[in-house]
Amino acid sequence: MTSATAGGVGPTPPAATRRKSVTGTRRAVAVLFLLPCLVLLGALVVYPIGYSLVRSFLNQSGDGFAGFDNYKALFTDDGIRTALKNNVIWVVFAPTIATALGLVFAVLTERVRWGTAFKLVVFMPMAISMLAAGIIFRLVYDQDPDKGVANAVWVGVHDTFAESSAFPKAHPGRQSPLQPEKGGFLTGQPVRAGQSVALPLVGVAPDQMPGSAKKAVRAAVEPGKVTGTAWQDFTRGKGVGRLGQVDPSELGYAGMKVEAVKDGKVVASTKVRDNGTFTLPAQADGARLRLPASNFKEPYNGLDWLGPSLVTPAIIGSYIWMWAGFAMVLIAAGLAGLPRELLEAARVDGANEWQVFRRVTVPLLAPVLAVVAVTLMINVLKVFDLVFIIAPGSSQDDANVLALELYRKGFSEDQPGIASAIAVFLLLLVIPVMLFNIRRLRREVRR
């Protein structure tokens, strides 16, 4: 074996040594172990991508060349254009809001003793599949406030400030002095002081009357005042009860508003007592009595969360519910590695907590925030499950995204060429984001 000479090159290593990797493993053995992975990668990734690229240039049957016609459809088909617009909305808002919430949760939970428990609760939705989450939020956004949590809360808040009417279906019966007027009802003739007026109504089932309603009584006459009774002029049972007269089993319209109107102006108003009676002052003399439309307003039923205008924001909300915990955990891990001396130095220099957060914490967390935002951006580009499950058939076109449109074109409409073009287009959208992430990771390694 040749020995090394001064200033020269050492002896050439044996061939067996040259064939070993840096870990000491023969490269042939390493390739042999990697071969199953390479085969699977080629079969599950490389081949489908190549086949989709080729298929995107063929016609519907696959036996003729279509050129760029399938790609032209991406910008001319109304369904695909709606999907593209919604994907832009998803990419802009979903990762931004989820990352921002994750940052806020991660920073605030550092300052409370029960921060770990809070993180566990926020992260828990990540353990739920997209299918299960979609079913959950389909129920959450149900239009019926008795079923949908979102509308139950919304209606509760609304009714706190604007109470709904208890008599939406009430209307005058036969021989009633009331006539329709702008959603309400108005007496045909003026009333006089010292007169008792009967205002019979029907249309409300006894079991739907307010809980405070009591058995109606005929109002007594009061000198100088207008009195009357507003009641449910209906008694169960054939031939039972007298029309236009208060019967023992009939209930008063408790809380109904009564107005006295002269020359189109309200001169007095009152509310019906629990027993249906009401009293108006002397100003009501010569006026006509009106039951305003507010008495018969339909109860507020909440928002149509899954309607055409709100379906996309509603689904984005369900996505954020799932992925905000993911963002929080990653950001919390990055926050734990920050040099605390920098934060303390900023506080010593007189910075308040908001300035420390904005000028020190966020810049130091920028690499972690970039990882989270890019990961979520790639994830929302291919979102499918939530949109497919949550959006009802009537508004699925308005909530459409590219991944869902790919499925619909490929399977429902039997247009595999256009579906393949959408798949290639999605790949092209993801590639720049992936390249950005790779370059950022390489910069981190060089540091």
Termini, distance in Å? 42 Å
Strand content: 5-15%
Mean pLDDT: 87
The percent range for helix content is 40-55%
Major sheet strand order? 2-3-9-6-7
Helical stretch count? 14
| CATH architectural designation of the largest domain | Orthogonal Bundle
Q: What is the strand tally?
A: 9
Count of the domains = 2
Largest sheet: 5 strands, antiparallel
Question: How would you describe what is shown here?
Answer:
Strand 6 and strand 7 form a beta hairpin. Mean pLDDT is 87; it is low at 1-8. The protein has a 5-stranded antiparallel beta sheet, with no helix packed on it. It has a 4-stranded mixed beta sheet with strand order 1-4-5-8, with no helix packed on it. The protein has 14 helices and 9 strands. It is of the alpha+beta class and 447 residues long. The chain folds into 2 domains: 69-152 and 305-446, MetI-like fold, CATH 1.10.3720; 171-296, no CATH class. The longest helix has 32 residues, at 78-109. The protein has helices at residues 15-18, 27-55, 69-76, 78-109, 115-123, 130-140, 149-161, 311-336, 340-348, 353-364, 366-381, 385-390, 402-412, 416-446; strands at 171-172, 178-181, 184-187, 195-202, 226-232, 257-262, 265-271, 277-280, 288-291.
